[in-house]
C-alpha cells in the first residue's frame, strides 16, 4: 500500500504539471490568433498551479470513491471529446500537407547517446499511458453483482485497453505524420495546431476538466488507505473519527471530518509544491510512467497470479511469466534512466 500511495502521489504531480501546460496553451492560442504565430506569447506558470491546487483542495473533500460517479462521468466525456478533436486535427493536417511527414528513424540527434536517452524517455511516456492498475481494485469494489465483479471488470478492462490503444495510436501516428520531426510532445499544447483557435481552446478546456476528475480518481485510494490506517491506529481520537454536520447556503448538508480536511489538504499542497518545482511535461510523464509500470502493472499481478493458480516454480508458465516480468523490469529501468536524464537537463537549462 505504501508503494501504491507513493506512485499515485507521483502520478498526481504529473497531472499538476500537465494542467498548467494546458492552461498556458489556451492563453497562447488566443495570443497567437491576435498577434500572429511569430509573437512572443510567454506566461508564468505558478499562478495556475496554485489555482488548480485550490480547486483540488475543495474537490478532495468528496467522501470516497463511491461518491465520485458524477465526476468520473464528466472526466470520461471530456477525455473522449479532446481525443476526437486531436485525432481530427491531425488527420486534417495530413490531408492539408498532401504527404506524410517524418521518417522511420524518428527525430535525428547529434550522437547515439542522445538518441538512446530519447528512446528511453519515450518508453517511460508509453508506460504512463496505462496507469490504471493503481485504481483497478477500487473501481471493481464499486461494481454490483451479479454478474461477478471480476468478470465485469475483465470485460471493462479489455474494452478500455482496446479503446485507449486505438486513440493513442491514431493520435500519435497522425500527429507524427502531420508534423514529422517537429511534432510537439503534446499536440494540443505544443502548437502544432494554431487554427481554429477556438476549437483548440475548447479541447484544452476539456483536458482541464478531465484532469480535475483524474486527480481525484488517483487520489481517493490513497485517502482511503491513510484514513483507514489512522482510524485503526487511533480509535478513540475525536480528531480522526468524529464527523460534524455543516450546512452551506444553497448546498446540501456536508459531513466534515477534521482529519480528512487536514490530511487531504496537506496532500494536495504537497503535490502542488513539487509540481511547481518540476513543470516539465514529457520528462515528468516519463519518470512517473516508468516508476508506475513494472511494480503495479506487471510484478504484483504476476506474483498474485502465481499464488492464485498455484503455479509451480520452473514450470513452463512460470518461466514465461518470469521472463515477461524481467523484460518489463528492464523497460522500467531504462525508462527511469532516460526520463531522469531529460528532467535534469530540462531543469539545468
UniProtKB/TrEMBL annotation:
InterPro entries cross-referenced by the UniProt entry? AA_transpt_TM
What's a single GO CC term here?
endomembrane system
Q: Where in the cell is it found?
A: Endomembrane system
| Stretches that traverse the bilayer | 43-62, 74-95, 158-177, 197-218, 261-281, 287-307, 319-344
Record's keyword terms, sorted:
Amino-acid transport, Auxin signaling pathway, Membrane, Symport, Transmembrane, Transmembrane helix, Transport
Q: Which GO terms describe its biological process?
A: amino acid transport; auxin-activated signaling pathway
The way it spans or sits in the membrane comes to: Multi-pass membrane protein
Q: Which domain of life is it from?
A: Eukaryota
Molecular function per GO: symporter activity
Domain Amino acid transporter transmembrane: where?
27-344
Summary of the function given for this chain in its UniProt record: Carrier protein involved in proton-driven auxin influx. Mediates the formation of auxin gradient from developing leaves (site of auxin biosynthesis) to tips by contributing to the loading of auxin in vascular tissues and facilitating acropetal (base to tip) auxin transport within inner tissues of the root apex, and basipetal (tip to base) auxin transport within outer tissues of the root apex. May be involved in lateral roots and nodules formation.
The family classification in the record reads: Belongs to the amino acid/polyamine transporter 2 family. Amino acid/auxin permease (AAAP) (TC 2.A.18.1) subfamily.
Q: What is this protein called?
A: Amino acid transporter transmembrane domain-containing protein
Species name for this entry? Prunus persica
Amino acid at each position: 500500500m505504501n508503494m501504491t500511495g507513493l506512485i499515485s502521489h507521483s502520478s498526481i504531480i504529473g497531472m499538476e504539471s500537465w494542467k498548467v501546460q494546458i492552461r498556458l496553451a489556451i492563453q497562447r492560442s488566443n495570443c497567437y490568433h491576435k498577434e500572429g504565430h511569430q509573437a512572443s506569447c510567454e506566461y508564468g506558470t505558478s499562478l495556475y498551479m496554485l489555482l488548480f491546487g485550490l480547486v483540488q483542495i475543495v474537490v478532495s473533500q468528496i467522501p470516497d470513491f463511491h461518491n465520485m460517479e458524477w465526476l468520473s462521468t464528466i472526466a470520461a466525456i471530456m477525455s473522449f471529446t479532446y481525443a476526437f478533436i486531436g485525432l481530427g486535427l491531425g488527420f486534417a493536417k495530413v490531408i492539408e500537407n498532401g504527404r506524410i511527414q517524418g521518417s522511420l528513424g524518428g527525430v535525428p540527434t547529434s550522437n547515439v547517446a542522445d538518441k538512446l536517452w530519447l528512446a528511453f524517455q519515450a518508453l517511460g511516456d508509453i508506460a504512463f499511458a496505462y496507469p490504471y492498475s493503481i485504481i483497478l481494485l477500487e473501481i471493481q469494489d464499486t461494481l454490483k453483482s451479479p454478474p461477478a465483479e471480476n468478470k465485469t471488470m475483465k470485460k471493462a478492462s479489455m474494452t478500455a485497453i482496446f479503446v485507449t490503444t486505438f486513440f493513442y495510436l491514431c493520435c500519435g501516428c497522425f500527429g507524427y505524420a502531420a508534423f514529422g520531426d517537429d511534432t510537439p510532445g503534446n499536440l494540443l499544447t505544443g502548437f502544432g495546431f494554431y487554427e481554429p483557435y477556438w476549437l483548440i481552446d475548447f479541447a484544452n478546456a476539456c483536458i482541464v476538466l478531465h484532469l480535475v476528475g483524474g486527480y481525484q480518481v488517483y487520489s481517493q485510494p490513497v485517502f482511503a488507505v491513510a484514513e483507514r490506517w489512522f482510524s485503526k491506529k487511533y480509535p478513540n481520537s475525536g480528531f480522526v473519527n468524529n464527523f460534524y454536520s455543516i450546512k452551506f447556503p444553497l448546498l446540501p448538508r456536508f459531513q466534515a471530518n477534521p482529519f480528512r480536511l487536514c490530511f487531504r489538504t496537506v496532500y494536495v499542497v504537497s503535490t502542488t509544491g513539487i509540481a511547481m518545482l518540476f513543470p516539465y511535461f514529457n520528462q515528468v510523464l516519463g519518470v512517473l510512467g516508468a516508476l508506475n509500470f513494472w511494480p503495479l502493472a506487471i510484478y504484483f499481478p504476476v506474483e498474485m497470479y502465481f499464488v492464485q493458480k498455484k503455479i509451480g516454480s520452473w514450470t513452463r508458465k512460470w518461466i514465461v511469466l518470469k521472463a515477461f516480468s524481467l523484460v518489463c523490469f528492464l523497460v522500467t529501468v531504462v525508462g527511469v534512466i532516460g526520463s531522469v536524464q531529460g528532467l535534469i537537463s530540462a531543469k539545468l537549462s
